[in-house]
């Protein structure tokens, strides 16, 4: 476990260009690394965990469960070829909006938070679903992808638990600003 934790920062600094592989996907490892190697996905997945932790129980667990479940629906739409306009913009906006919700300490009702997270999950899922049919082993890819996504949600939750102190709340809100800025960079083609 300690080796994994030491390697995690190096995995996290990988280029966003690796996030969308244009069909060159494989099995479990490709699925696992896909959300971890793309900053556009990293910020959204971490933000879901952060916002859930900020909102507290039951959102701390519901939002990170809603995201992959609804993402599977988006993935299925991508697999069967249902078009979805502005997928990349939707993915970038997920970072902007979720980051701003965290930065401004927005305490949305659980159902509103679930809808927001679910809408963005459709875009993330669709992007991955369009790549999935090319995978050598789509089942292994999907399992790896869910585990990678879950890990990023857990990282967000862990940072979100800092909200218990005034300094921690400032750190979490600051992370929201960074997430929104990175999402904006993707949205405007800067990143």
UniProtKB/TrEMBL annotation:
Pfam families per record: HupE_UreJ (PF04955)
Per UniProt, which keywords does this protein have?
Membrane, Signal, Transmembrane, Transmembrane helix
Give the InterPro entries listed for this entry: HupE_UreJ
Which region is the signal sequence? 1-19
Entry's transmembrane regions: 35-54, 61-80, 86-105, 110-127, 139-163, 170-190
Keyword Manganese listed = no
What name does the UniProt record give this protein? HupE/UreJ family protein
- Annotated source species: Maritimibacter dapengensis
